[in-house]
Amino acid sequence: MAWQAGDDGFVHSYCNTIPTADGGTHEAGLRVALLRGLKDHADRIGQTKRAASITTDDVMATCAAMIAIFIREPEFQGQNKGRLMSAEATRIVEPAIRDAFDHWLAGAPAQATRLLDWTIERADERLRRRAEKDVARKSLVKKLRLPGKLSDCSSNAVETTELFIVEGDSAGGSAKQARNRATQAVLPLRGKILNVANATRDKLAANQQLADLALALGCGTGSHYNHAELRYGKIIIMTDADVDGAHIASLLITYFYRQMPKLIDGGHLYLAVPPLFSITQGTKRHYARDEAERDAIIKTLQAARGKVEVGRFKGLGEMRADQLKDTTMDPMKRTLHKVMVEPDDREATIDAVERLMGNKPEARFRFIQERAAFAAEMIDV
After folding, report:
1. What is the pTM (predicted TM-score) of this model?
2. What would be the CATH architecture of the domain defined by 2-133?
3. Ranges in the chain annotated CATH 3.40.50.670
4. Is 330 among the catalytic positions?
5. Which helix (H) or strand (E) is 238 found in, with range?
6. pLDDT digit string (tens) for 222-244?
7. Across the chain, which distance is largest between two alpha carbons, in Å?
8. Which of 14, 185, 222, 376 would you call most buried, defined as having the most Cβ atoms within 10 angstroms of its Cβ?
9. Is 58 a known active-site residue?
10. Catalytic annotation on 240?
11. Catalytic one among 58, 167, 212, 326?
C-alpha cells in the first residue's frame, strides 16, 4: 500500500487469484486494520482528540493498495464472484495487516505523523463539506437571516459600503451612534474569537461568532468563497488600542487569511487606528495613537498658553460617539491600515501564521526565545 498526495485511492483485491472487483470481507479487514493502527499511533503521540473523527474512508481516500488472500472454500456474492463474503477473511487479514502496519508506524515516526496529519485533514474536509450541505439544505426550507447584532447600512453599493467589526456591545453602541447609516455597518463580536489556525472543522462550524461574521459578509468561506457575493467594499477591524485589542485583531486576520484569502488579495481588509490618548489645552483637543505621538504633541503645546491635560482611553466603548467618529470612522479624518500579503512573501507569511497561531506551542516558544533580546520592557507574570 502507498498514500498518494494528489490522486484518489484505490484497492485491487483478489481471493485465490480471482479478482474481487466489488471488494468484500478481506478489504474490510484491511480498512479496519489501518484505521485502528493509525488511531493507536495518535494515542501514543498525544493526538487522540484530533484523530477522534477519522474514519476508514478518510484513511483510504488517497491510499493505493493491493491485497491477495488464499483461503479454503471461499464464499462469493453473485455468479461473477465479484465480492468475497467469507467472514474468516476479515479475521485473517486484520491481525496480519495490523501487525505489519504497527511495526512500520513505530519504525518511521516522522512519516507516520505526516500520514496522521494528512488523514486528519481529509476528515476535517469531509466534515466541512457535510456542514455546508446541511446549511444549504436548511436554506431551501428557511431563508437565512442576517445576524441579529448586525446594524446594517441602507446602501447596497459594494464599492462605497463598509463593515466595522468591533469588540463587545459597549464599543458597538458607540460605533452605531458614530457611523454613517447609509454606508457604514457595525457588527459587534463578543470577546476573543476562535483561533482558526489550531481549531478543528467541527469547532469552526459550531462557532456562532464566526458564523455570524460569514453570514454578514455573504461571500462564503474556503473553497466556496464567491467574491461576487461580498456585501461590503471595506471590512474594517476596529479594536481597542491595547494588547487585548491587538490579540483580537490578530485572531480576526488569521480567520480571514485562512478562510477568505481572496478577500485579502482583493484589498478589502483594513485595520482601524483608534487613538490611545486625548490631549486638551483650553478648548482645543488633540489625539495621539501612541506615547511617541503624545509626547510630540505635548512638546508643541507647551509653547502656548494654557494647561495641558492628557487622558488615556481605556477602550472604544469609553469614547463618545463624536470622538469615535472624528478619530476613527470618518473617511475624511481617519487612518486605515490595509492588510496585504506581498506575492514574494507568501511562503514567509504561511510560516509565520503556522508558528504564531498554529497548534504547536513549541514553535511559539522558540519565536519568543529568538527575539527575547530585542524586548524593550520586561514583565513579571
Report:
1. 0.59
2. 2-Layer Sandwich (3.30)
3. 147-274+335-373
4. no
5. strand 234-238
6. 888 888 889 999 999 998 887 78
7. 106
8. 185
9. no
10. yes
11. 167
